[in-house]
Amino acid sequence: MTREKWDPRQLPDLTGRRYLVTGSTAGLGFFSSLQLAGAGAHVVMTGRNPNRLSTARATVLRQHPSASVETLILDTSNLGSVRSAAATARGRTGLDGLLLNAGMVHPPAERDTTADGHEIVFATNVLGHFALAGELLTSLAMARGRMVWLGSMSTSMWKYDPVDPELENGYTPWRAYVQSKVGTTALGLEADRRLRDEGVPVDSLIAHPGYSTSGRTRGILGINEPSRGTRFLDNLQAPITQSKEHGAWPLVRALVDPDARGGSFWGPSRVATGLPREATPSAITRDTEIAARLWNYCAHATRMPWPYEKAAKARRR
User: Pfam families this protein is in (predicted)?
Assistant: First the structure.
């Protein structure tokens, strides 16, 4: 299947493949899980709330009764939860793909911190995923798999350099969000460079969903239930918005397209909307000095170094 002929509505057969998706109970994570499961993959759906996870899994199975789906409690804002979930996920066979999707899209008005003492947006969107990717690196290497980090077109609109990643000074909700997305994209590119240098058979890619909104997405009980007001406002922006289903297309393509290369960046063809295609990440996220600074910060903050040597020797059983 060539890049020119990729059809997000007709994915390749993923039978025998195993993927873990963070933030699977709604939005992009749910629709990514739904699309992967519909193509025959075994999907590990993760989330913080067991009831919402149960609802999400049941919804996938209603649409694809023969799907292979399991659930796993994971809160990316809590490093203890990350360690626990990773230990459970590692106890099985190799992992073909890891979709690092979970995150805070609407940060709190005032700066808040997690139980670990980290700013909550950076912890949820960046630190937890950095730690999880490292903890699952050997499982990914066993399957010669890939990790996909969730980017955002916001990094091209505001060039916030995260010199203060946890915003101890100058916190605003928007700055917290954009800095976290600079972080995930820069780390995704840096991860691919480091994995290649260390001989680890894992690719790291980044994908963004464009401008995808709940108000443009079909209603699903317990999954997507926008208010009438949200529907009205989102539909006013119809020319530049798309559904969460379509927003998941670049994420899924980056995860499963055999032609997608490590270090590549994916998004909608019209930036905010459209079919998934390879794109160019913003200049700030391609700055290797910024990426190295963020990498070192995350490694220190999480105290979870990536096991390159062990992963380089890993083989699928």
Answer: adh_short (PF00106)
Q: What is the pLDDT of residues 131-162, one digit of tens each?
A: 999 999 999 999 999 999 999 999 988 878 88
Q: What is the 3-state secondary structure (H, E, C) of 47-86?
A: ECCHHHHHHHHHHHHHHCCCCEEEEEECCCCCHHHHHHHH
Domains of the chain (ranges, CATH numbers): 15-306 (3.40.50.720)
Residue with tokens 């980017």: 151
Alpha-carbon distance of 116 to 238, in angstroms, equals 40
Residue 249, CA distances (Å) to 46, 101, 185 in order:
19, 13, 18
Tokens 């916190």 — which residue? Answer: 171
For residue 74, give the nearest of 100, 112, 105 by alpha carbon: 100
Closest CA to 57 of 37, 75, 40, 74: 37
So what's the pLDDT on residue 236? Answer: 75
pTM of the shown model: 0.95
